[in-house]
Amino acid sequence: PHPRSFTGTSLTQNHDEYQKTADWLMSQTRHRPQVAIICGSGLGMLADTLKCQDTFAYADIPGFPQSTVQGHAGRLVFGELKGKSCVCMQGRFHMYEGHSLLKTTFPVRVFKLLGVETLIVTNAAGSLADGLKPGDIMIIKDHVNFPGLVGLNPLSGPNDDKFGPRFPAMSGCYDKGLRCQAMEIAKELGVAGLMQEGVYAMVGGPNFESIAEARLLHRLGVDAVGMSTAPEVVVATHCGLRVFGLSLITNKDTDSVNHEGVLEVGRLRSKTVQQLVTELISRMEINNNNTTNAV
Ligand SMILES: O=P(O)(O)O[C@@H]1C[C@H](O)[C@@H](CO)O1
Ligand SMILES: Nc1nc2[nH]cnc2c(=O)[nH]1
């Protein structure tokens, strides 16, 4: 399809295509992940903490889209973190790259088929709130899915009942228990001063906001704005995954923002984000018994 036709095409994806990718991955790794992590811009180092890694380039995974954005390596990393089996996306897919929304969220349904129970999403975002400055970390308590509000939704098209209902609720889609646990961890790590909860809004990108757009979003109650995450969370919630989300604030409004600066703040805060996520995974309750299979 024409790369610009992503809004109107690919409204269906056969269930077998997700299953084929999941089956292929299960044939290539002995890990059976319980937790999946999607790394935002400049936050790919989260994968480095995984032990006993099995790594796959997206290009080698049947059915996987390709990453095209600098700072998104394009690798899927399986491994163990504090006794939990995890899979980490070093690089995500964005609507502005020309992927259909079904493609941007394809890995989430594959994770579900792998047995994942909890999805952790991270992103880089611009602050619109007075109290949030570059380097701060926002626990996402809710989102505004601007593309979704006008019908650009990965759940558009025939519903796949095997994954979830036609009309899923999105209230409470960012798990309250995990949000509280993360704040407790931040206190223990001595980084509570960097952290607060807020509302993330996804816009289409790839341009950053004009001054008037940033002002509008602020008035609408948005604390941080970015170009991803919401479709992944919609699809995850649809198929029953528990979700936790973090935004690393990389810039304030649109003040001289650029992608290099975004990646730079990611590097600066990588250690803190890594510690928070590692500790959260270490403490989280997991109901399923997915684990790494001894070979
Ligand atoms: O993947 P995320 O949402 O972290 O990426 C943000 C939004 C754009 O892709 C990019 C802009 O610098 O960072
Ligand atoms: N839309 C948007 N995405 C971002 N990603 C990092 N910073 C920003 C921002 O200011 N706006």
UniProtKB/TrEMBL annotation:
It comes from the Eukaryota. InterPro entries: Nucleoside_phosphorylase_d (IPR000845), Nucleoside_phosphorylase_sf (IPR035994), Pur_Nuc_Pase_Ino/Guo-sp (IPR011270), Purine_phosphorylase (IPR011268), Purine_phosphorylase-2_CS (IPR018099). Transmembrane segments: none annotated. It catalyses: 2'-deoxyguanosine + phosphate = 2-deoxy-alpha-D-ribose 1-phosphate + guanine; guanosine + phosphate = alpha-D-ribose 1-phosphate + guanine; 2'-deoxyinosine + phosphate = 2-deoxy-alpha-D-ribose 1-phosphate + hypoxanthine; inosine + phosphate = alpha-D-ribose 1-phosphate + hypoxanthine. The keyword Cell membrane does not apply. Phosphate binds at residues 41, 72, 92-94, 124, 228. Signal peptide: none annotated. Pathway: Purine metabolism; purine nucleoside salvage. Residues 35-281 form the Nucleoside phosphorylase domain. Its EC number is 2.4.2.1. GO terms for biological process: purine ribonucleoside salvage. CDD domains: PNP-EcPNPII_like (cd09009). A purine D-ribonucleoside binds at residues 209, 251. GO terms for cellular component: cytoplasm. Keywords: Glycosyltransferase, Purine salvage, Transferase. GO terms for molecular function: guanosine phosphorylase activity; purine-nucleoside phosphorylase activity. Catalyzes the phosphorolytic breakdown of the N-glycosidic bond in the beta-(deoxy)ribonucleoside molecules, with the formation of the corresponding free purine bases and pentose-1-phosphate. Preferentially acts on 6-oxopurine nucleosides including inosine and guanosine. The purine nucleoside phosphorylases catalyze the phosphorolytic breakdown of the N-glycosidic bond in the beta-(deoxy)ribonucleoside molecules, with the formation of the corresponding free purine bases and pentose-1-phosphate. Belongs to the PNP/MTAP phosphorylase family. Homotrimer. This is Purine nucleoside phosphorylase. It comes from Labrus bergylta (ballan wrasse). The lineage of its organism: Eukaryota, Metazoa, Chordata, Craniata, Vertebrata.
